[in-house]
Write a structure and sequence with these properties.
The chain is an alpha/beta fold. It folds into 4 domains: 4-117, 3-Layer(aba) Sandwich (Cobalt-precorrin-4 Transmethylase, domain 1), CATH 3.40.1010.10; 121-245, Tetrapyrrole methylase, C-terminal domain (Methyltransferase, Cobalt-precorrin-4 Transmethylase, Domain 2), CATH 3.30.950.10; 254-283 and 418-505, Rossmann fold (3-Layer(aba) Sandwich); 287-417, Rossmann fold. It has helices at residues 20-27, 40-43, 66-78, 97-106, 119-126, 157-163, 176-185, 215-220, 239-242, 266-273, 293-303, 315-328, 344-351, 366-376, 394-399, 425-430, 442-451, 467-475, 488-505; strands at 4-9, 31-34, 51-54, 57-58, 61-62, 82-87, 111-114, 140-144, 166-170, 193-198, 206-211, 228-232, 254-260, 277-288, 309-312, 338-341, 382-388, 406-417, 436-439, 461-464, 479-482. The structure holds S-adenosyl-L-homocysteine.
Length: 506
């Protein structure tokens, strides 16, 4: 059976501007063919195991010719695959979306279009520029500044100048002098406000505000980073009043978040809320241990009342243990055993099973859990700790220091390190594109370090949830900041403080 092709708009960069439908289709894709304009934050959404094909286009540096891309889409669809053709912005706005459909139509391949948020409108919006405003204009025009080789511009400058509408030029940076010159020659007022908007909706967004007469000169003073659009019109003058993106506390900050792949990232959402651009890198993956015999034996003992306490040190630890428990028996196997959780995330994981922790330490780390649980439980208590195979020793060491406790430490899951298939994290770090890496556990530091192994770690600014995590980062030479408390809120505050410190350093 023939597959199907979805032509999907990825939006202009900010992952939050990808449509719900686009995300849904992407999550079920078998093949993704993507462009250079698709942001890494969006690429981070592609599920593991999806076949990835880069059809990157950057002017002068074509990786796949248009006809080749068309053919790839056809071939994969003929193989019965669910193919997503992922394009920056909207696929039909200077995206050659139409060209890519022709071959599919000829071969009767079914397809759907998922429109995207176009940079032509979103980038001005993120700069506080409304593309229309009743007091200033009554139309908006999207124009390409790209000229086919050996062709002259197919732009009617006279008509554009006469519309008095807002003009948005895509692919226009190389042609900036020609475009402004064309407008001036056609009689446009040289004092008409104009702006170049670079890398809009990302942490690196920047605006050069000037007029049609002075924009070229203003851009010569700095290197214009692409992608960028040019906006011409009276509405450009509103940017200073309505500019909002740069006012968010973490504006301009690009953060790498590592987490176990199975978990949704509350942390990423909290950082995005404050204006950070978040690159999610699922550096570690948790998998149940291959040989479950010891776990099963512990569950058997538990069901016979063999343990007084169960202590959990991570949300994954909770999930993997209870998955097994429920597969073998049901929650009644817990009997009267009491529950300890290292912190709020772990407590939340327990709540999913309708269970509440009887004990949580005052500081959310292994050492404190061990020390405080030791005095909280009755002398001679038997404690079961189902946790990661690489769990650290401090917890057990503390528990064994006294009170005659019998501790059973069993490995329920292994932590695997997985480098991203699509994001070149090493290149990102070396180019200084990552302002901070945020770590919620020592194992995520290890996962990250394994994934980017030979990178110069002194270039990494690590914001860590606690002492042990920070120690792991420091050991590798990273500059570190540590949250006041081991909570996500405190971690986000630490990122804000670190960002502030870096701004002052500059
Ligand atoms: N289909 C895309 C446009 C493709 S043409 C869309 O709807 O947005 C590529 C041009 O889009 C670039 O040359 C640049 O002018 C513009 N562009 C895309 N993303 C941008 C961004 N994040 N910031 C500024 N300009 C962007």
């Amino acid at each position: 059976m023939a597959g199907k092709v979805w032509l999907v708009g990825a939006g202009p960069g900010d992952v939050g501007l990808m449509t719900l439908k686009g995300r849904e289709v992407l999550s079920r894709a078998e093949v993704v063919v993507y462009d250079a304009l698709v942001s890494n934050s969006v690429l981070g959404l592609i599920p593991e195991g999806t076949k990835l094909i880069f059809a990157g286009k950057r002017s002068g540096n074509h990786y796949l010719k248009q006809e080749e891309t068309n053919k790839v889409l056809l071939e994969e669809a003929l193989n019965g695959k669910r193919v997503v053709r992922l394009k920056g912005g909207d696929p039909f706005v200077f995206g050659r979306g139409g060209e890519e459909l022709e071959l599919l139509v000829q071969h009767g391949i079914p397809f759907e279009i998922v429109p995207g948020v176009t940079s032509a409108f979103a980038v001005p919006a993120y700069n506080g520029i409304p593309v229309t405003h009743r007091d200033y204009c009554s139309s908006v025009h999207i124009v390409t500044g790209h000229r086919r080789a050996d062709h002259s511009y197919d732009i009617d400058f006279g008509a554009l100048a006469r519309t008095k509408g807002t003009l948005v030029f895509l692919m226009g940076i190389a042609a900036l002098p020609d475009l402004m010159g064309g407008l001036l020659a056609a009689g446009m007022d040289p004092d008409m406000p104009a702006a170049v908007l670079e890398r809009g909706t990302t942490a690196r967004q920047r605006r050069v505000s000037a007029t049609v007469g002075t924009l070229q000169g203003a851009c010569e003073k700095t290197v214009v980073q692409t992608p960028a659009i040019i906006v011409v019109g009276r509405v450009c003058a509103l940017a200073e009043t309505f500019g909002w993106a740069e006012k968010r506390p973490l504006a301009g900050v690009r953060v790498l978040v590592t987490r176990p792949r199975e978990r949704v990232s509350t942390l990423a959402n909290m950082l995005q809320d404050r204006g950070a651009e978040v690159l999610e890198l699922p550096a570690i993956r948790t998998v149940p241990v291959k040989d479950m015999t010891p776990v099963d034996a512990a569950i058997e003992t538990l069901s016979k009342g063999g343990y007084h306490w169960l202590a959990f040190t991570s949300p994954s630890g909770v999930d993997i243990f209870f998955d097994r428990l429920i597969a073998l028996r049901d929650l009644r196997a817990l009997g009267g055993a009491r529950l300890a959780a290292i912190g709020q995330g772990t407590q939340k994981a327990l709540l999913k099973y309708g269970l509440r922790a009887d004990f949580m330490p005052s500081v959310y780390d292994g050492e404190t859990l061990g020390r405080e649980l030791r005095s909280a439980c009755a002398p001679g208590s038997r404690i079961l700790i189902p946790r990661a195979a690489i769990g650290d020793r401090e917890l057990i060491g503390e528990l064994e220091k006294g009170n005659n406790l019998a501790v059973t430490d069993i490995a329920t899951y292994d932590t695997e390190y997985a480098a991203s298939e699509v994001i070149d994290e090493r290149g990102e770090i070396e180019r200084g594109e990552i302002d901070f890496a945020v770590f919620t556990s020592a194992s995520t530091v290890r996962g990250f370090a394994a994934a980017v192994s030979d990178v110069d770690f002194t270039r990494v600014n690590a914001v860590c949830i606690g002492k042990q995590t920070a120690a792991e980062a420091q050991r590798r030479g990273m500059r570190t900041w540590t949250a006041q408390k081991a909570t996500l809120e405190a971690l986000v505050e630490a990122v804000e403080e670190a960002a502030e410190e870096m701004r002052n350093d500059e």
